[in-house]
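Every protein is a chain of amino acids, and every chain bends into a shape of its own. The protein below has been through that process, and both of its lines are reproduced in full.
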Amino acid sequence: MSYSPSSSISLTDDIFDLNKEREFTPSFEQFGPITVDLFREKLKSLSSLEKSSVVDEFMELIMILSKCSTKRSLKRLIIRFAALKHKLLDTCSLIEKQAFLELTENFKTEIKKHMDFFYSQLRTTSVAQNRKPLSELQAKVLEQLQQFKDMAKAIPSFKDAESLVDDLCFEFSSQALCKDETEREEKYVQVMAIQGQLQMLCETEDDRTKVNDL
């Protein structure tokens, strides 16, 4: 499941947004500051990323995310997070791609309280409560996703998260059919938030690998 987010969103815009009236308490005030030094060091230990300035931008973005207090900024920053992650992954050699994914997922696990908070702020209510009637075309897309759904529900960590998997498939099928760019981006944010929530449920490295392989 993928959507290519824009990588042109300016961090300056979102730093400016930090001064706007709060909609929620930033995660760093709730859970403490995020320390990125060791994560940065581990990423730069990969030969593909040793001299990458994108790693530094990735670290800066994570710090800004923890100070975010408006949903507008959070959406823009989480899209930027995905774009930078994909950019770094594309920079990695074939051999180092898996190492990058493991390091990134392990770091997200270390800051789980922050990540859970980001994803919960992005989520709307369960789509099962607000689904519009399925079009014939969307029904076909969902049918094509049945194998993915079965594989996801077979992951041990998701034994109590079947509704999240259903939400993911529904939002992805909606996004795939969106013609309006703004609506498509909003659907992408929902897909990413649900994917993030599922990833944070993974209890083992093996389950995290299975999620990345879906």
User: Anything to note?
Assistant: Residues 2-10 have pLDDT under 50 and may be disordered. The first helix runs from residue 11 to 17. The two ends are 8 Å apart (CA to CA).
